[in-house]
Amino acid sequence: MTAKWYKRVFSVGSHAVTTYNPSTLEVTNQNLRCIICHPTRFQMDHAKSNLIWNYKTREELRDAFEAEMRAFNIDRELGSASVISWNHQEFEVKYDCLVDEIKIGDYYLRLLLEEGENEETGAIKRSYEFFNELYHRFLLTPKVNMKCLCLQALTIVYGKCYEEIGPFSDTKYIVGMLDRCTDKLERDRLILFLNKLILNKKNVKEIMDSTGVRTLVDLLTLAHLHTSRATVPLQSNVIEAAPDMKRESEKEWYFGNADKERLGPYSFEEMKEFWKDGVLTPKTRCWAQGMDGWRTLQSIPQLKWCLLAYGQSVLNETDLATLILNMLITMCEYYPSRDQDNAIIRPLPRIKRLLTDNTCLSHIVQLLVTFDPILVEKVAILLHYVMQDNPQLPRFYLTGVFFFIMMYTGSNVLPIARFLKYTHLKQAFRSEESKGHDLVQRSVLGHILPEAMVCYLENYEPEKFSEIFLGEFDTPEAIWSNEMRRLTIEKIAAHLADFTPRLQSNTRALYQYCPIPAISYPQLENELFCNIYYLKHLCDTVRFPDWPIKDPVRLLKDTLDAWKKEVEKKPPSMSIEEAYDVLNLPKGQGMQDESKIRKAYFRLAQKYHPDKNPEGRDIFEKVNKAYEYLCTKSAKAVDGPDPENIILILKTQSILFNRYKTDLEPYKYAGYPMLIKTITMETSDDKMFSKVSLLPASTELAFHTVNCSALNAEELRRENGIEVLQDGFARCVAVLTNSSKKDDMAVQVCGHICQCYSVAAQFEECREKITEMPTIIRDLCRLLYYGKTLPRTAMLAVECVGSFAVDYWLQTHLFQAGILWHLLVYLFNYDYTLEESGIQKSEETNQQEVSNCLAKFCVSALSRLGGYLSEENGTPENPTIRKCLAALLSPYVSRRLSKDGPAEILKMLNSNTENPYLIWSNGTRAELLEFLQEQQESMIKRGDCDKNYGAEFVFSEHAKELIVGEIFVRVYNEQPAFPLELPKEFAGSLLDYVGSQAQYLHTLMAITQTGKVESDQHEHRLRTAEMALEALRNVIKNNPGAEMECIGHFKLIFSLLRVHGAGQVQQLALEVVNIVTANQECVNNIAESLVLSNLLVLLHSLHSSRLLVLETLYALTSNTKIIKEAMGKGALVYLLDMFCNSTHPQVRAQTAELFAKMITDKLVGPKVRITLTKFLPGVFMDAMRDNPEASVHIFEGTHENPELIWNDNSRERVATTVREMMLEHFKHQCDNPDVNWKLPEDFTIVHGEASDELSVGGVFLRIFIAQPGWVLRKPREFLVALLEKLTDLLEASNPNGETLELVTTASVCLFHSQPQLADQVPPLGHLPKVITALNNQNNAIPKSSIRLIHALSDNELCVRAMATMETIGPLMNGMKIRSDMIGLASESLNRMFQKEQTDLVAQGLKVELVPYLLQLLEGVGLEKVENPAATKAQIVNALKSMTRSLQHGEQVNEILSRSTVWSAFKDQKHDLFISESQTSGYLTGPGIAGYLTSGTMSAVIPSGPPPVDSEGVDVCR
Prior knowledge:
Layout: H1 2-10, H2 30-37, H3 39-42, E1 46-48, E2 51-53, H4 55-78, E3 103-104, E4 107-108, H5 109-115, H6 127-140, H7 144-165, H8 171-180, H9 184-197, H10 201-209, H11 212-220, E5 251-256, E6 263-267, H12 268-276, E7 285-287, E8 295-296, H13 301-308, H14 317-334, H15 350-356, H16 358-366, H17 373-387, H18 401-406, H19 414-423, H20 438-442, H21 451-459, H22 462-470, E9 473-474, E10 479-480, H23 482-496, H24 499-505, E11 529-530, E12 533-534, H25 535-538, H26 552-567, H27 576-582, H28 594-608, H29 617-632, H30 643-659, H31 661-664, H32 672-684, H33 695-708, H34 710-718, H35 721-734, H36 745-760, H37 764-771, H38 774-785, H39 791-804, H40 808-816, H41 819-826, H42 832-836, H43 847-866, H44 879-889, H45 891-896, H46 902-909, E13 913-915, E14 918-920, H47 922-942, E15 963-964, E16 967-968, H48 969-974, H49 983-1007, H50 1016-1038, H51 1050-1055, H52 1063-1076, H53 1080-1089, H54 1092-1096, H55 1098-1101, H56 1106-1116, H57 1120-1128, H58 1131-1141, H59 1145-1159, H60 1165-1173, H61 1178-1186, H62 1188-1196, E17 1199-1201, E18 1204-1206, ...
Antiparallel strand pairs: 1-2, 3-4, 5-6, 5-7, 7-8, 9-10, 11-12, 13-14, 15-16, 17-18, 19-20
Helix pairs in contact: 5-7, 6-7, 7-9, 8-9, 9-14, 11-14, 11-16, 14-17, 17-19, 19-22, 26-30, 27-29, 28-29, 30-33, 32-33, 32-35, 33-34, 33-36, 35-36, 35-38, 36-39, 38-39, 39-43, 41-43, 41-47, 43-46, 49-50, 50-52, 52-56, 56-59, 58-59, 58-63, 59-60, 59-61, 59-62, 61-62, 65-66, 66-69, 69-72
């Protein structure tokens, strides 16, 4: 069993498997047990705090097992008779290689310390027992090194397992050891152990109970002795002394060995020498400033650890102090100053009380002067914790903490900022005379930092203050830089004098507080601080254009207070000489050095400090006052109010009212008394233009106040502000010249006052006051006169003019003062190319942009003066000003003032324009500018100008033009598409003008019968009339709706059509009439005017306008009344003449189209058609309707077709007749426009060739039979007429045989060529007549009926209709009468029986048709038939069709079965007997028209195309 176990442990990599598990073997080390159970780990090396396993340990284990196995085998051999068991319980392996390792419990101390607090190491098992074992070893060992190792191990174990271990009961003992020990290593290990012990809150109490806090603070002071501290790169230029920069140590120490012996003072370096020489011993009594009495050397921390102590420390002084500060911070965190409900805890937590004690707090504070970044940060954090809700906080400043902390030069200032924000306003310091704001007076930092930095600290979070404190800022809220920080540190360092070096000699020296005079910063020398802003920076709108102001109302109040204080400022109460007397300094030697002043101050302050000398309080205050005065005395000393400060205050208020109108609007401005007084004083000052004047800033403030609130405007008026402003305005305007600059004081004042007046004019009572002061308007005009070189100021003046225009009387005063001369001149300085260039532009850098803006302002002012605007910008309408502007700028431009923006108007005025409303060129501009400048000069220098103020001004170029309705007619005719503002009004004006010229034109044409104008005057008047008519045509054409103005003027317009000799007038009048015909109301008015005759005569007299006349007539003929008038006035004869005799195809086609429209009129159209048919065949009217061009071609061609027979003779006869009638009527109508035309009742034109032809329904039957394929225009009408004609012949007793044959053949051809027409036959009612005619004894009539029935038998509708009447009997009778038609009749029967097998078969049975047909098959009755075989074949087909009847087929078959003939025919095929050609030709032979035969057809080939059938055209389309 032992061998198996051994093999398992040592056979690494073997594949042997054993089932034995040595559970009975005891292995005390748990880790060793684990690796024994895992052979792979067994072969690995381990160096852990609880396990050392390597090659040596494995070999020693192997040797021990082998020796044990040998002994066991021997014993087993000796006792082979008995069962031997291994005594494994007492088996033990002794590892000689681990003898030198210190092992406590299960852990090796060396490895435990090497691992330290590494989190990757495993957790400590049974930590509580192990910790006690360690502490037990610590207590027992007399060796310091061993104690330190145990302390180090205790620190590690407790740091890892403090929660499991719990409170440490011997904390007080550890603190006592720390107080007693003199070994630096032991000290550091004890402090590190305490640092871990405070992880448990209960241990903290033990530390406090055992004076551990004071002991720790004593050790903190050693940080002042750390001279090898690393140098950190700092922002400030002030850098603390480096280690090699040694200076002579301060003599602080006293000692004595014998009783009452007192030696000293000595420096710390000298004390070290005394120790080396054996003069000093641990029992020597010593004293230094800051100690409460004489103490032995070994009880003074500084001397103990620097002279008496031994050993090598783990921590240097700075690291030690950092560790202790962290411990104190942790202890304070355990005991907050407020509970969960934010209630202040009282009494103050003990840890904070202990640290607040005089023996601790000052020493903690004084660590700040080490300037070590980590120490300063930790001290700031600790002090912040300690001072929270601490009753001692108001006297905290006495420790000098604010001096020390502000001397810090590092950048990790966030904890400092948090500390300062919490404490700076809670200090109970006193300063009777301080500069700055209330907040600054309440802050302990008020004398150290600039006012803005104090405000930043209070108003912003610490993070923001830290950002400012470390940066370079130059803003209205913060002016701070590294240079200013350096100055701060220098001033504080100078104030503290030699206290900092003293701490290196005596670490427990205590600072004696002395207030510091306010630090003056050169960067703030010309600044005025108010509220939280530097007003000079705030007023610098170039650098800070929109700097946000948090509380504008509060700032306004503060500036008013500052203004009042500045005005009431008095000279200083103490002079330099008096201050020197107080400090006992010599006088008459100039300004003393600050160091001498400071030394004198310290000397007297210590002498008369109230704590030392209660009787010296008054002298102490005088000393403080003198010191502060001398140290803060500015090079710039102003006795009384400072005008620069007042200007800043005024500008700040202007900024407030300008940017924060909404916030300040509810408040009435309280500074008007001071403001009005300031303006009055400045205006009355004779030296106003030669000194720093407050007038620009004060007048600007006046504007912004009234612009902010209506309350202020009324208040300004009540304070006589308008009068005071006018005094200043008049004085400043009087000094203006052409060389004045924009920065001149007078120019600035004028601009601000103009703005003020602009706002005041919004209020009625202010306007009344301004109206009473005419000098305001006079000075305003004078300012505009000099505004050519001051465009920005001129803009303000123009804006003021626009504001005054809200009142009618102010408009009038401005007008009479010649304001138009000044405003209009500026319009022509505009450059529209700059506006359209797309280039970035600014008034600050582009002078032309300023001129453009001024021009726009002038346009707006003119619009308001004339009252052109409406709604919110509306002003009273001023007819006088409007009249002047219409004359000076033209009516069109003046009207645009109410519609267009300034840019559009200015572009129009500064560019050459020629449109119907405006003719504007370089010449017109120069002419107007010359006139305006003359009036300007006259008004400014002599006080008078044009008495009409330009109302009668006329441009020389415009005087040559025809102007109707404010429109240049010539230009409009050149630009007819130009959009007109009021086209209807313009059309009405033109009609009035034409009316005024009409009588003259008629008279002129009557006198000059030749039609030629003889004089230039007459030519000019004729030309103007033509221009007016052309404009009338254009305005109606391009402006729908304008034609309505012609209603009521058509007699005038049509009368111009008769002005013979003035063809252009006639043409233009005709064009006007032509355009208005598109309006139905105009057409109706023309119909009522009865003026059509004037238009008709133009068809003959004005050949060039025939097409236009026809187009006009076409439009007019939409009115029935006009068609009726046209009939009466001879329109048809004029039109017929053009259709027949014109050589212009388009004229003839348009005439045909007009005829077609007239014919379609429901009332007069039939009369028109009847009249036309007396001249032309009806086919022409139909052709005109369907295709006017085709009708012209028909007229010009030679035709012989079923619908028309037309040749040269017919055409010549019609054309000659029409021309004669037209000329005669034209002559009468020229003499009397009211004459009527009427055609004689019996008038007709006979066309010879067509008189002998039989025509039915407009179709010549002979030609139709010859051309059955002709496409008829009206096939249905022809069908109706043809059937009417045929039935009339069939009913006649003795009809003309030739006519009957012709009509019958035409009918058969019609149904053959157009089978669909057969559908129309049953409804017409002719079938009964056709069937009745079968019984007629005149053998020609039954023949016609049989032929027609044969043609209709192919139509199903016709067969159904015949089935409803007795058809078979009459047909059988007709067959008997005309035996030659039996074949045709049999074929008809066959077709009918195939389509209808019930009623017709029944009729056949009734009339015994079957026996009759069988009889015919026998040959009886076929004697006269030319082709009996074919006839019999048709009979057989008819019989077979009858047998197919479902209802009567059996009866037919029964009859047939009884016949002996039928059996011979029923099974035979008769197709060979029936020709595939037309049956009619086969049956009848060549005696019938060609349609019935298969032979060729001959016809007259027409010279023109046949008429186009409308239905056919539609289908093609």
